Amino acid sequence: MLVAILLAVIGVLCGVAPYFALAGILSGLVQNTLTAERIFCYVGIAVLGETLKMLFNTVSSLKAHRVAYHILGNIRCKLAEKMMRVPMGVMVDTPSGKLKAMVVDTVDKLEQPLAHMLPEITANVFTPLCIIILLFILDWRMALACMIVIPIGFLLLMGQMKDYKNRSDRYIEASSNMDSSLVEYVNGIEVIKTFSQTGKSFQKFSDAVKNYHDTTLDWWKNTWLYSALGLTVIPATLVGGIPVGAYLLMQGSISFSIYITCLILSLGIAGPLIQATYYADNFAVVDASIRQVGNFLDEQELVRPSKEVLLTDDGFHFEHVSFGYDKKEVLHDITFSPVAGGKTAIVGPSGSGKSTITKLMAGFWDVTSGHIIYGGQDIRNIPTSQLMKHISFVSQDNFLFNISIKENIRMGNPCATDEEVLAAAKAARCDEFISKMEYGYDTLVGDAGGKLSGGERQRITIARAILKPADVVILDEASAYADPENEVYIEEAINELVKDKTLIVVAHRLETIENSDKIVVVDQGKIVAEGTQSELLKNCALYKRLWNETILTSERKRGDCNA
Ligand SMILES: Nc1ncnc2c1ncn2[C@@H]1O[C@H](COP(=O)(O)OP(=O)(O)OP(=O)(O)O)[C@@H](O)[C@H]1O
């Protein structure tokens, strides 16, 4: 960047040459000393100056852009890395449109200032400075006369900086709101159409667009007068220079060539200065953008060590764990141990805290109090990457990346061979439907997305988990894909997944967990009972009620099928 600034300064200095050449021609003309060779020489100086100016500016701009895009790339990578380290809550609570706006648009706003502002502002301030020094060397009275309008013009321009910080904050907020409501509108288009919410949802987006429009217009309404006056006054250097110079000329205290040179040189002050004020505008944008990016980078992280620790076994233990997403506690003093090497089911009414328990095991959030122990260590003392080597987390959200199906499965174990990927897909009962696709395992998920059913997507994510050599499988059992055929396939896939592993399953349909080694019953964030199916049916009224509801639902379903 320093090289870019230096080159820009040299470029600007070269740009002063044509002014000297013009002054030389004019004073030669008036003093009758001009010859054809002199004219040729002056034109040569002017052309050379302009050419060098263009050359230096181009190289400077190239260098500055390279640096700027390097910086933008670094900021974006830092933001993406940060997303991996902040608690999941920060990611869940921030609309995806807002995150997109920050990583793409806010960071993009730094391109202009970085690539242009630093070299050009330096060059544009340096040139007028050189001209002013030259003017003072030529004649200090002419220098003052020419410059008298500049402070007045700047005072007028300063008027537009009134309330600048608030205005630029409002502008960035309005632009980010417009982005996030557009992303929300696009992501939710299916729900919007299904529930005929088109008008209401579109209204939210059009309100955001209107707000952006009003904010921008409001900004210009507040600044245009100051800007117009300032930009008219600053270039008017001749207003002081011509009369004062003429008077000094009549008095005989300056020569005609000094008079003409000063007037022409003074014309070179305003252009770069005005250009510099345009870039100065960017300071507030830089400030607001950096603050927004900085706030995210300063978000508190889940603190984990980087050095791997010794894990003695693959058993989990909850010891007096309490947790709340915000201030409201949702888990209260939970103590239990899933069966190592066996199957533990977590059951309870909706909203009782089952999924939250599993998310805490995967380290997505930190507990408020108490300890979650894995392999003899508090999970806060285990590096995330080490913990994740031991855990496969299969949630209801069957997220597939827009890469080939094969690569989606391979994410479970990047070192797996094609044969291993195929074996996992077969075990997860995916092979049949994948093979029927035109490009088979190489089909891009984006292309196949419309063709994949919810159950098929889930089986692909199970294949991914089968491939991962983890000791513990945490399964947030899906209740959504309950058509009989898929249900059978998914159950078979899950049975393959959990062979010889510790399984912790959040169960919504109790028939699938009746043979568990341990069933933990959760109600309103507390563990109310634990034991086997037969023990709980005897001792736990809540479990008995949930079981009866399950039986009733199954019978109703069977009745429907028979009918
Ligand atoms: N990201 C979140 N931010 C704030 N509150 C949350 C969040 N996720 C869940 N909750 C709240 O925590 C409580 C427990 O939710 P959790 O998802 O663990 O229940 P659950 O038993 O798994 O429910 P379900 O069976 O319906 O999936 C609920 O009151 C829920 O509203």
From TrEMBL:
Q: What is the top-level taxon of the source organism?
A: Bacteria
Query: Where does this one sit in the cell?
Result: Cell membrane
Q: Determine if RNA-binding is one of this entry's keywords.
A: no
One family from Pfam that matches here is ABC_membrane
> In what way does this protein cross or attach to the membrane?
Multi-pass membrane protein
* Residue stretches spanning the membrane: 121-138, 143-161, 224-249, 256-274
Q: Which residues form the ABC transporter domain?
A: 316-549
Describe the location of the ABC transmembrane type-1 domain by residue ranges: 2-284
Q: What is this protein called?
A: ABC transporter ATP-binding protein
